[in-house]
Amino acid sequence: MNNIYLPELAEIVEVEEETPDTRTYGMRLVDGAPAPVFDYKPMQFIELTVFGVGEAPFGLCSSPTRKESFATTVRAVGSVTNALHQLGKGDRVGVRGPLGNGLDPETIKGRDLLFIAGGIGLPPLRSLIWNVLDQRADFGEVTILYGARTPTDLVYKPLLGEWEQRDDVKFLVTVDQGDESWTGRVGMVPTLFPDAGIKPEGTLAFVCGPPIMIKFVVIELERMGFASENIVTTLERHMKCGVGKCNHCAIGHHYVCMDGPVFNFQQIKEFMEEA
Amino acid sequence: MADYEARVIAKSDINAWVRALMANAEVVAPVAAHLDDVVFQPIAAPEQVAWDYENTIQPPKTFLFPQVENIYRFQRNGDRSIEVEATVDRTKRVILGLRSCDVSGVLYMDNVFSQDNPDIYYLARRANTTLISLTCPTPFPWCFCVCSDAGPFLSSGYDVQLTDLGERVLAEVGSEKGQAAVDAAGNLFSPAGQDAIDRRNSLEAQAERIFYQRETNHMASAMRRVSTAQVKDELWEAMAPWCLGCGGCNFLCPCCFCFNMHDFPANGGGVRCRTWDSCAFPGLTREVSGHNPRPTRAERVERRFYHKLSYQYLEKEGLPGCVGCGRCVITCLGTTTMPNISEGIRRGTWR
């Protein structure tokens, strides 16, 4: 019988500094067979162990279309994340996954896609954005709206520049509060909506960010005419086991780690407990 | 049950049988402890078994799903490599003298830990554990096992079910493991005659009569209301102050299984442990950002009883998450016990 709690060893192969407290860690399985990267779907997650400190869930920010490594973007806020920030290339961590439902890109081919991210909510969406952009011809219009508190809090800055340059992607970025060098937009994410050319009919919106941002974005999208089932998010919970046993991530009788983390808002409204 | 033959053993031979069981396995049984307490413990001699007990403080859950259990050991080597070794307990155990409700609790846990992603830690212990249960001819004042069909007598689920017939004890065999446990006694058991079966059946009828003379605790009615979202937020808010958030009901419940994981470093290595957790604790859902999706006690009380009483969970887990053992009634420092909450939900008011 497979041991659902036993992590596989992974080696950190890449560390990218995103913000002063946030880094992206690229990893490969040490004894990965047949490959050093497991098969996964965008927006699935892993349980990552820093041995002797603990384990915590992290959304994958890499895309299954890029097979050299898998990655997650981590802000140092707690014991596991701070310990992870002490590690570097060549260090070993434990990994269980991929976990959760994720999103099968096959099911959204041909659709117009709208990605709305706040702060460190961009990483889980990047897994799908990369997957879509790597198969660009298979999808309709792609719009990416991103906001953070300050310019310093924007993750993937070189990548944001690339998206800005592409003519097959509409990309807008804003910050709540600018600084001396910031010449871009200032305001909360919904202030980007009027300039984004959003077509509520048939567009699939993916929203990820802090709970308060998600709340206001969803209100605005529904006001614009988005059907609840066309607004998709990835829910965050304190997923301890990741395999539907420990009950930390329960919402009603659903387990975010098993039935989610990807849910549309029609599903969320039908939960027996407020999400 | 039909596949195995019921047996009887003279009470004077029971200790010899227990001694035979002890030769092959760790035997866990109710043992007299501090003051009037009776607890499940591994025994060193058959005479320790407290056959005439009401119910133990804790269910035998901890022998299948320990309060603290090592999951794996790890060791760092000089070259940055790390060795990880799972620590699965495969000790042969007999849990002797547990009551019908506690057998039902184990059957519920079997479902939880075997469905979807099977849990090797629980299932390895379970595969190596034999359950020799005890029927309850006289229900105790706080019991309500009939409400969830978890006792007082069982028709399946046990390995051996014992009924006290006076001078003799009837042993109904429910599985191969049970057959092996009875066979361990050599020729101490003899086939049960119809008189023994009739006596058992009349004791079961007597037990049910005692239950039916009591006021019911309305669990079925509460289930219907919880499952269809008919319980108002105000009612949960009225109930919540009567829960002290201590988690005692969770820790003593045969069906509670929320858990946490902790790492303990030691000497260039360490262990990962799993420990019981509780839906009464804010920390169950609190995230590292400080955000807590279930921040109030009212929501946490609702959570506990949604899990225990909803059809949604009954469908998911196959059995109700309450076996009517009454331990929450005994341990609750406040008044948010299963019978009280069920009644409050049915009435729509809290007194």
What descriptive keywords fit this protein?
heterodimer; A: 275 residues; alpha/beta; Elongation Factor Tu (Ef-tu), domain 3; six-stranded antiparallel beta sheet; 15 strands; globular; B: 351 residues; alpha+beta; 2 domains; four-stranded antiparallel beta sheet
| Tally of discrete structural domains of chain A | 2
Query: What order do the SSEs of chain A take from the amino end to the carboxyl end, as H and E?
Result: EEEEEHEEHEHEEEHEEEHEH
Strand order, largest beta sheet of chain A: 10-9-8-7-11-12-15
Number of structural domains of chain B: 2
Elements of chain B, N to C (H/E): EHEEEEEHHEEEHEHHHHEEHHHH
Structural class estimated from helices and strands of chain A: alpha/beta
Strand content of chain A: 25-35%
Architecture overview:
The complex is a heterodimer of chains A (275) and B (351). Chain A has helices spanning 79-84, 122-134, 157-165, 211-224, 256-259, 265-270, and strands at 8-19, 22-29, 45-50, 54-59, 70-75, 92-99, 113-118, 142-148, 170-175, 185-186, 204-208, 231-234, 250-251, 254-255, 262-264. By secondary structure, chain A is α/β, with parallel strands linked by helices. In chain A, β3 (45-50) and β4 (54-59) form a beta hairpin. The longest helix of chain A has 14 residues, at 211-224. Chain A starts with 7 loop residues before the first strand and ends in a 5-residue tail after the last helix. Chain B is of the alpha+beta class. Chain B has two domains: 7-212, no CATH class; 219-347, no CATH class. Chain B is globular and about 65 Å long. The model of chain B has no long low-confidence stretch (mean pLDDT 95). The interface between A and B is large, with 44 and 53 residues.
